Amino acid sequence: MSISTGKVAGEDLFAEATAAADELYSFRDNYFPLSPEERVSKLQIQSDLALQILDTIPIEKRKLPLQRATYEYLRGKVLDVVPVYKKEAEDHLSKAVKLNPSLVDAWLCLGNCIWKKGDLNAAKNCFTFALSKGLNKNILCQLSMLERKLAQDAENPEEVVDESIKHAREAITLDVKDGYSWYNLGNAFLTSFFVTGAWDHNKLIQSLKAYQNAERDEKMKSNPDLYYNCATVNKYLENYERALTGFEAAALMDPGLNAMEDARMMVLLLDKLDYLLRGQSKAKRLSSLSSSLATVDLSPSYKRATMDLLSEGLNKGYAIIGKVLFFAKNESLAPLYYVLSDSNHTFYVISVYGIRSDAIKEGDQVTLLEPFYRFVDFSWREKNKQTHFVGLTMAQVKLPCLLYGDKMPYLFFLVGLVLLFTVHVEFKISYLPTQL
C-alpha cells in the first residue's frame, strides 16, 4: 500500500485525510507477514504517510470546533493503528470527543485505544455512550467483543456472554449482509460454548452457521481469523477434514496464527487413536476385559445394543455399554478421549467434555444413552502421499446420557462425542508440512 500525498485544496483535504485513514486500516486488516515485527514496522511507515496528509490541512481549516474535532479524531485514529497502546493517540481522541461528543467514530477509536491500555470498564463506557447517540453496527460489534473479554473475570460470565450475543445480533439487524457482524456473532457463540460450562453442542452449530454467513461477504474472504475460528469449531464438531482445510487456509493468510501447529496436533491425535485401535484386536487381555461387561439395569425405555446396530443420526431408545480400555492423552485441554470396546469387541472412541481427566479410568464401564452419530469418510493429502479416513463415526450424547457404572461421573458432565473405528480398517497419518 502507498498513500498518496498529492495536495488537494480546501475542504477536500479532510476527505483525503479520512480516505487515507480508512486505507491505512484496510492495510492493517489484510497485511500478515511472517514476522510480527515486520507488520508493526510497516504499519508505522504507513501511519507516518497518513499523518503527512493530515498535516497538509491548513491551521485556518482546523479552528472551528467541529473542524478541530475531526482533525483530532483522524490524528488519534492514525496513531492508534499499531497493536500497542499509545498515550498520544488517546490524548487526540479524548480532545475529539470533548469538542464534538456526537462524533461516534471517535468514541469507537477511543474505546479501542483505552482497551489496549487495559482499562476495560472505561472502554465499555466509550462504546455505551456512543450507542446512546444511535445504534451503530461497528460499535455494537466492539462492545460485544469487549464483553467477551470482560466475561473472563466476571462473577457471572454466562450473563456477560449472553449480553455479547445480544449485541452481536443487534449489529446484524442493522446490516444483515455485513460479514464482520456475522463473524462477531460466531465468536460470541463459540465463547459461550466454553465460558458457560454447559458445553452445549448447539452453540457450536450456531457458531458455525454464523461463520458460514460471514464467508458470503467478499471482504471477509481475506480474514484469516475467520478461517481459523471456523476451523476450531469444526475441530470440536469432529469435522476433521473441514478443520484441517480451514487451519491450512488460515496459515496461508497469516503465518502468525500458528494454525499449522493446530493441524499438526490434530493429525497426531488421530494417528494416536489409530495406533491404539488397530492394536487392540491382537490383545487377548483386552478382549477378556471387554467381555467382562457387567449387567446394567436400564430403564425399560432403552434397548441394549452394540455399535454395529446403530444407524447414522439419533439412535433413540438405544443404550451402548462399553469398557474403557485406554485414556488417550493429547495436548488439547478438551475434549478427553477414551478408547472403549463393546461386548462384540468393536473398539471405538468417546470424546468427552466437562469432566476431569481422572473422572473415567481404564477398566471402568460406561453406558451411552441415545447416541447421535454420523459416518465420516475423507482423504487428506500430505505432500506426496494421501491418507484415507474411513470407518470413523461421531456421536453426541447429553445428560443424563453417560453413566459411569450406574452413576453420573460428575454432575457437570454435559456433552460426549463417540468416534467409531471398525477394527479391520487401517489408515495412517504420519505428518503435516510445518510450512506451506
TrEMBL record:
<keyword id="KW-1133">Transmembrane helix</keyword>
<dbReference type="Pfam" id="PF16669">
    <property type="entry name" value="TTC5_OB"/>
</dbReference>
<protein>
    <submittedName>
        <fullName>Tetratricopeptide repeat protein 5-like isoform X1</fullName>
    </submittedName>
</protein>
<dbReference type="InterPro" id="IPR032076">
    <property type="entry name" value="TTC5_OB"/>
</dbReference>
<feature type="domain" description="Tetratricopeptide repeat protein 5 OB fold">
    <location>
        <begin position="301"/>
        <end position="387"/>
    </location>
</feature>
<dbReference type="InterPro" id="IPR038645">
    <property type="entry name" value="TTC5_OB_sf"/>
</dbReference>
<feature type="transmembrane region" description="Helical">
    <location>
        <begin position="408"/>
        <end position="427"/>
    </location>
</feature>
<keyword id="KW-0812">Transmembrane</keyword>
<keyword id="KW-0472">Membrane</keyword>
<dbReference type="InterPro" id="IPR019734">
    <property type="entry name" value="TPR_rpt"/>
</dbReference>
<dbReference type="InterPro" id="IPR011990">
    <property type="entry name" value="TPR-like_helical_dom_sf"/>
</dbReference>
